[in-house]
Amino acid sequence: MDSTLISRPGYRSDIDGLRAIAVMAVVFFHAFPSSLRGGFIGVDVFFVISGFLISGIVLDGLERGTFTFSDFYQRRIKRIFPALFLILAACLALGWCLLMADEYKSLGKHIAGGSVFASNFILAKEANYFGAAADSKQLLHLWSLAVEEQFYIVWPLVLWLAFHRKWNFLLISLLAAMASFYLNIRQSGIDLTEDFYAPQTRFWELMFGSALCCAIRQIPAERKEGGNVIPGWASIVGVVLLACGFGLLDKEIGFPGKWALVPVLGAVLIICAGPNAWVNKVVLSNRVLVWIGLISFPLYLWHWPLLSFLSTFLGGTPTVQLRFAAVLLSVALAWFTYRFIEIPVRFGVFGKTRVALLAVLVGVTGILGLIVYYWNGFQSKGADEFISYYSEMNETIPGSAMRKAYRHECNFLDVDQEVAGVHYVARSEISSNCYTRDFAKSKSIFLWGDSHAQQLYFGLSRQLSDDWQILQVATSNCGVLANHLDGTRKSALCAKSNQMAKESIARAKPDVVLVSQVVPLSASEAAQVNKQVLELGAKHVIFVGPVTRWQTDLVKLVARKYMIHTPRYTFSGLNMAMYETNTELKKAYAEANINYVDVMSLMCNEDGCLTYLGDDVRKGLTARDYGHLLPMASDFVAKNLLVPQIYRIDS
């Protein structure tokens, strides 16, 4: 343990212990998400600690007359840039060795964003922190560092103004925290992704730490004797709050919103209980926890890129043993970074010239990231051309064949806005051809669901006889039971789509309603939908089970592992959990006497699941991503499974 660091005046070992709890929670959430569902709240604990410590540093300097902005930011550079440079440079090198061109291009953009602390803004337009796409973003975790650094740009200036104008520090902190918290609550009801990443909706967590710092400074010295500000049991309450957060909160609750109060208040109570509270003195000041706390920053920086690169390279979730090995390697790299990089830079003789050099190194790395991005990840031949071919098969591209194959005009989601980073915007209307009955056709089928219903259109349009009309109201990201209005754009979008679907079914009274969505309905949910649709006037309802699901994009799985010889069937990279879910659903639907189409039974056998159709793997892959059917596969499913089932049930 470094004596230089822990012997400095005002140092609190219990706060390093709290850092250890926070970083271990985040690491275990990323490595073993099912074992610690709420581990992501460790970042919120970091925010409180940062607000508390930084405010103390600034206020101490102001009161002593030694504070300067140049000194403050030099200290931040020496604290942050050494480890950050290592991570960015390592990712640049590893990406060159392990990633495909499009993946490397994306990494280049995130390296550039990370170098200027803008990762949160980039990610807000790209990925939900808890979404499947987030796993492939090696620098996803830099969003929190960006928020902290943005806070450090604004808050010291506010404190400096407050000091010189004789404003009350505590009042300013509380007012700012309340304003930010209000924005957080409001935004959580509109767009959770924006709420998660935006600095204005996250600053309140750091300001709670700042307010605590200001409150403690206003307490007379005689009341702070021994270091305790409030009774020691406060830290026990804080620990209970954190434990409840780690165990009970999960990614489905709509975080941050009001739920972020749980870790924030827990951290505040633990810190303000003081270093002599029993929990703080005995548990958090334990030498092991303090050591982990001291390496917490480089550990946070190292762990996620290693896990993400491992997952990307293997084409799916690594084994428990490999993930554990990645965590151990992260700890080793964190210790090395702390001991041989951080300590010499932070506490050695390090003049302004060398501080400037650190900034230049990070800046140059960011520029290299931009070069990678603008040069398309240095696209090469072979596997990258293969990926490029399939990347064009995406309905997010205006005018692409996939928009026609998925019948884009029947999707209420404004896909162009989605691509631009504005999520869940509803189009004012869809084409009347999607829901208006053409009685020149003697039969009609109605597709209802999300993009997993959209993918069935192409095959049905080719395989159903000419006397069948295909109606469709299927909106991306909207399951058929998503009808609850909670103020968010997504709920409004889905409610609008599903209301239109039900009204259209009632008017058209189709012969068959085909229901399909990414998250399969349970048998009881399906029974509810089945009853409702029949009451609306449809003659029959068919529920389509999940298609083959892969842990990563099938295109990249094949490009990375099977370009020379692609097996027609494989278990490699298969999402076995969905495979097992399908078996359970098939049995439950049969017991409930509900029509269920088992797509996996067609696409999978004892050798695994279909990777491609036809003779050319470069043109015949079954899916363009984790499980959206390409047109050839949609045609295959319709011809061999759906259409025979439709004809049978309607006969």
Automatic annotation (TrEMBL):
Please tell me one Gene Ontology term that the record gives under cellular component: membrane
- Tell me if Calcium is a UniProt keyword of this record: no
What's one Pfam family the UniProt record gives for this protein? Acyl_transf_3
TM annotation in the entry:
39-59, 80-101, 167-185, 228-248, 260-279, 288-310, 322-341, 353-375
Alphabetically list the UniProt keywords.
Answer: Acyltransferase, Membrane, Transferase, Transmembrane, Transmembrane helix
GO molecular function terms attached to this record: acyltransferase activity, transferring groups other than amino-acyl groups
**Statement: the UniProt record of this protein carries the keyword Transmembrane:** yes
Q: Using the record's annotation, list all stretches that form the Acyltransferase domain.
A: 14-339
Query: Residue ranges of the SGNH domain?
Result: 433-639
- Identify the stretch annotated as signal peptide in this record: none
One GO biological process from the UniProt record? lipopolysaccharide biosynthetic process
Task: Specify the domain of life of the species encoding this protein.
Answer: Bacteria
List the protein's name.
Acyltransferase family protein
